[in-house]
Amino acid sequence: MDLPVMPPILPMLAKSVARIPPGMSYEAKWDGFRAIVHRDGDEVVIGSRNGKPLTRYFPELVDAVRAELPERCVVDGEIVVAHEGRLDFDRLTERIHPAASRVATLAERTPASFVAFDLLAKGDASLLPMAQSLRREALEAALTGVRAPVHIAPATTDIALAGDWFDRYEGAGLDGIVAKPLDLPYRPDVRAMYKIKHERTADVVVAGYRPHKSGPVVGSLLLGLYDGSGVLQHVGVCAAFPMKRRAELMEELEPLRIDPADHPWAAWGEASAHESARLPGAPSRWSGKKDLSWVALRPERVCEVAYDHMEGTRLRHTAQWRRWRPDKEPRDCTYAQLAEVVGYDLAQVFGEA
């Protein structure tokens, strides 16, 4: 492979802001795997956000890149999996599997798509120094007539339309808006763009914690919600505390410590238990050797957290601490409190329906 921008290259990133800033180019924020695709003839490399190759996990996309992208190019975008008209991150994560036979099966059962939103090189020319607006024009010209499973991400400079997308596209599984300064060159591994994500709050049960890697303080709180059958389900974690607060939480939660055998999640170490319930410590091919041990607590404390959106029955991202809720009963922390997002067909995002 001999391209003006060679792999690995880290993607340009975005910083969170509360509102959509004016005077920029706006796109939907895709909920998938960030990927930079390098193509030089038949040679294709798909690089992940951290620079590691994803190529072997998505053979159907390698074929699509050869069929749809220019013969020599570097394209930034997102790998997504759609199910029943919306993005499905759980099915996407299942695609990362060590067995080649399983990879081949999943490529047929849950095929992925590639959503292109930036052009970093074409032919012998690097486009990294070019302004965002010019790279967008070059992307649209280079991918004219592209066919599924490769798509061009819709973009607009109309902030009112971007606000409309922010509201409507969530129903198709997208999780916000990305705003890009029009004169911005491509800056790998720099948070030079802006992301605006949905934020909601929920009252959740604190049912355990994981110790911090640095010592005897809280690393993350394990959060639970009761389902319709009255079973406490593990829905995610709350983290990112200052070190002083981690030590305070350790002291506050000490009286609630119990033997894991007496906890609603006592069966978390049994693989079969994870098939019917969400429990902490579930095996994860993303975690590697990460310590997933946890301290069981009596599920008696309730806290309010902020979150962006749900993925099925769990929080898609790490929740943000807001406050203790001593006025709330744990049994009142159910899925019923969560806002339901109005459905929106993903095909309409691409103008296909």
Automatic annotation (TrEMBL):
Residue ranges annotated for the ATP-dependent DNA ligase family profile domain, each copy included: 11-197
GO molecular function, one term: DNA ligase (ATP) activity
Leading EC class: ligase
Gene3D superfamilies assigned: DNA ligase/mRNA capping enzyme, Nucleic acid-binding proteins
DNA ligase ATP-dependent C-terminal domain location: 216-328
The enzyme's E.C. designation: 6.5.1.1
Any one of the GO BP annotations: DNA recombination
UniProt keyword Ligase, yes or no: yes
SUPFAM superfamilies documented for this protein: DNA ligase/mRNA capping enzyme, catalytic domain, Nucleic acid-binding proteins
Catalysed conversion reaction: ATP + (deoxyribonucleotide)n-3'-hydroxyl + 5'-phospho-(deoxyribonucleotide)m = (deoxyribonucleotide)n+m + AMP + diphosphate
Keyword tags: Ligase
Entry superkingdom: Bacteria
InterPro entries, A to Z: Adenylation_LigC-like, ATP-dep_DNA_ligase, DNA_ligase_ATP-dep_C, DNA_ligase_ATP-dep_cent, DNA_ligase_ATP-dep_CS, NA-bd_OB-fold, OBF_LigC-like
PANTHER family linked: DNA LIGASE 1, DNA LIGASE 1/3 FAMILY MEMBER
Family: Belongs to the ATP-dependent DNA ligase family.
UniProt protein name: DNA ligase (ATP)
